[in-house]
Structures are given as C-alpha cells and as structure tokens.
C-alpha cells in the first residue's frame, strides 16, 4: 500500500545531497523510504530534475532472466543517464569519494528517432542509429544497495555514476554482431583478464532490455529521444573495484574501450 505521507521531493533532496557529498547512507529514513517501484521512479524523476543536468539516455540493470527471477522483478530496473557523466574511451572517472564501485561491460544502442509512449511497441532496425560497447560504473548512494530494497535503489537512479561509450559498431538490429560481442569480449583490469561474456539465463538480451525500456516509458508517459544512449545491462560478469588508480579495458572485435578510475 502506498503511504499517503510519502513525499518524493523530500526523498530526492536527501539523495541529491549524497550525490554531491559522496557520503553513503545505510538506508533512507522511514518517512522518506519509497514502498513501491512507482514511488521510487517518482523520486528518481525528481532527483534527476533537481540535478539540473541534461538527460542523454537510459540504463537498465538486473535485466537477465536469472537476475529478474532472483529479484522478483518482471522488468529490469531503469535509470537515467546524465550527459556530463557519459564519456568517450580513455576517460578518467573521478569519484566523489573513495568507495567501492561495480563495473559492468554492456551493449548499448543509440536511438535514431523519437519513440513516443506506445504500449506494446517493440524495437525495429529503424530505431537504432548505432550499437556500442559501454562500461557502466555503478556507485550507489547506499552502503549496500541490495539491502535497502529495490524502490530505494530505483530512487537512487539505480546507482548510476558514470558511463564510457565506444564508437559505433553498426546501425540497425544486427543479431550476429550481438552474439559475437557476447562470445568474444574480454575485460581487463590493470592488464589482467577479469571478466568474459555471460551466457544462458545469466546473460542480458540487449533487445529484450530495449523493449522493456519502451514499455516503462509508455507507462510513465515519457518519450524517448533520437540520440538517446540506452545501455542495456551486463554483457560480461560484473565485478567490484576498491580504491583508485585502476585501468580498465574491454577488448572486442579488434577494438579497445578503456577508462581509468
């Protein structure tokens, strides 16, 4: 049941303080804690509006069949990408505080046209300007993002900290390309192989994730925009990093995507 006392603006204001300070919360105070995903997304929208940065796209998390079953979700969790937190290969990611982060190598699509809110819409080739590889850096404003519950994590913009985006690998829907990326991409940390592509129910299907975003946007009456980047969830095994000074790279199809932390 939704609490009539819940005010999403207050939740967003507290989370925004911690976005700026880098300090971590154990949990939200009871009066500020969203009880439903809808309340969480209302808080996220307010947080993103208050941050005053232009939106350049969307992120999806907990999107594999195995992940959604374990989390009791029918759809991946969805966050918003702030333009100033999205970078090209070779970027240095400066954290607001030295705390552990999770690194996920993902497939992303760049939309080639506006997608109006329309229930039941599915992705088609004409929707996709580019397919890219990305690194998402997840840094929740909570000490343990899984312990606080999914509505609170959604309010925290699904822990988004930064995104590093490769050059385009091609336009439209290219199933063989997506399969080859999942099978051959390797992730290195400080020169040592750390992760490879996921498979089976542990793997996220990028096109299914994109369809889930269409459905989410339709329910909330939001239009997706041409040029939006949609990073679809972990293609390779996610891993945590502690401290700074790390060099992270992905090798795929003769190319390299990298960043330092």
Which terms summarize this structure?
261 residues; 13 strands; alpha+beta; 8-stranded mixed sheet; 5-stranded mixed sheet
Percent of residues in helical segments?
Answer: 25-40%
* Class per helix and strand makeup: alpha+beta
Report mean pLDDT, rounded to a whole number: 95
**Which overall shape is indicated by the principal axes computed on the Cα atoms?**
globular
Mind explaining what this structure looks like?
Helices cover 25% and strands 29% of the residues. The chain is α+β, with helices and mostly antiparallel strands and 261 residues long. The strands form two sheets. Strands 1, 2, 3, 5, 6, 7, 10 and 11 form an eight-stranded mixed sheet that branches. A hairpin with a 2-residue loop joins strand 12 and strand 13. Helix 1 packs across helix 2. The mean pLDDT is 95.
Secondary-structure topology with pairs:
Layout: H1 8-21, H2 37-51, E1 55-61, H3 65-71, E2 77-82, E3 86-88, E4 91-92, E5 101-111, E6 128-138, H4 150-155, E7 160-165, H5 175-184, E8 186-189, E9 192-196, H6 206-219, E10 229-234, E11 239-241, E12 247-252, E13 255-260
Parallel strand pairs: 1-10, 3-7, 4-13
Antiparallel strand pairs: 1-2, 5-6, 5-10, 5-11, 6-7, 8-9, 8-12, 12-13
């Amino acid at each position: 049941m939704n609490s009539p006392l819940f005010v999403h603006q207050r939740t967003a204001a507290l989370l925004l303080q911690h976005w700026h300070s880098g300090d971590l919360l154990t949990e939200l105070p009871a009066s500020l804690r969203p009880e439903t995903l809808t309340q969480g997304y209302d808080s996220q929208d307010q947080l993103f509006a208050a941050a005053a940065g232009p939106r350049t796209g969307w992120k999806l998390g907990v999107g594999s069949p195995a992940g959604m079953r374990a989390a009791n979700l029918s759809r991946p969790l969805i966050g918003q990408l702030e333009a100033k937190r999205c970078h090209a290969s070779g970027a240095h990611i400066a954290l607001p505080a030295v705390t552990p982060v999770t690194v996920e190598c993902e497939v992303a699509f760049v939309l080639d046209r506006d997608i109006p809110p329309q229930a039941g819409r599915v992705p088609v080739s004409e929707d996709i300007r580019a397919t890219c590889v990305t690194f998402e850096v997840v840094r929740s404003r909570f000490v343990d993002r899984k312990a606080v519950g999914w509505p609170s994590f959604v309010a925290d913009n699904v822990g988004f900290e930064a995104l590093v985006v490769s050059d385009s690998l091609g336009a439209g829907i290219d199933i063989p390309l997506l399969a080859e990326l999942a099978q051959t991409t390797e992730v290195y940390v400080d020169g040592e192989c750390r992760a490879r592509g996921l498979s089976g129910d542990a793997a996220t299907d990028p096109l299914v994730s994109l369809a889930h975003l269409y459905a989410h946007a339709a329910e909330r009456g939001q239009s997706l925009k041409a040029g939006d980047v949609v990073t679809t969830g972990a293609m390779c095994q996610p891993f945590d990093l502690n401290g700074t000074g790390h060099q992270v790279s992905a090798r795929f199809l003769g190319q390299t995507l990298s960043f330092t932390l």
